[in-house]
Design a protein that fits this description.
Length: about 210
């Protein structure tokens, strides 16, 4: 690569109307090409780390990670997901991702990835939505009155993220006396073989019940 002084001389010649030799043109091309390559490399590295950060935040659990704001969520979630967890949206029974999911694993808050329900507590509630006898911990949820659609129900929300999850109903046939009917759009499902790598190793014992 030509020395920097050569490049400075070339620029000076350009500024004062001097003629440029073929060697100087070659030097300009070399420096411009090197500059573009450096810029592209820096941009590439930036977007790589940005992508890795985004992937980590959306696939792993960290209880100390701040809850994303609405601006971030609107860009991160699908329209239906956002409508459910931040609005008053619902999903069509029997036409959602997890209503008949029989895989072993945990269901985590789509906003924070906090574990909320386990597959061992899931059963077919005959309503076309994921149904559980209980959450992993009631301390992770809050219950609020819901009088929408001229019905009196109890809505269930995630305590940390305030995500709207679904509803809880009395159910004398359930071992807990309750059933939690939730929306698939409010959750990610983490299969048991991915739990350790994604930060959920401490929850593996929950799946030893059956």
């Amino acid at each position: 690569m030509p020395p920097i002084t050569d490049s400075i001389n070339v620029i000076r010649d350009l500024m004062y109307g001097g003629r440029i030799t073929s060697e100087e043109r070659s030097a300009i091309s070399t420096y411009v090409g090197a500059g573009i390559a450096i810029v592209l490399a820096v941009v590439g590295i930036y977007f790589f780390f940005l992508t890795q950060k985004e992937k980590k935040e959306t696939t792993t659990f960290d209880p100390n990670r701040p809850v994303p704001g609405d601006t971030v969520l609107k860009g991160r979630l699908k329209a239906e997901e956002y409508a459910v967890v931040r609005g008053n949206g619902s999903q069509t029974p029997f036409q959602n991702d997890f209503w008949n999911n029989e895989k072993v694993g945990i269901y985590v808050d789509i906003i924070t990835n906090e574990p909320l329900f386990a597959s061992v507590d899931k059963f077919d509630g005959k309503v076309g939505l994921p149904t559980f006898t209980k959450p992993i911990s009631k301390d992770l949820l809050v219950e609020v009155p819901d009088n929408t659609d001229e019905m009196q129900r109890t809505q269930v929300r995630a305590k940390r993220s305030n995500a709207r999850l679904g509803h809880v109903f009395p159910d004398p046939k359930s071992p807990t006396g309750q059933r939690y009917v939730v929306y698939s759009a409010a959750f990610h499902f983490v299969p048991i073989d991915q739990m350790k790598d994604r930060g959920y190793e401490a929850y593996l014992t929950l799946l030893d019940k059956k």
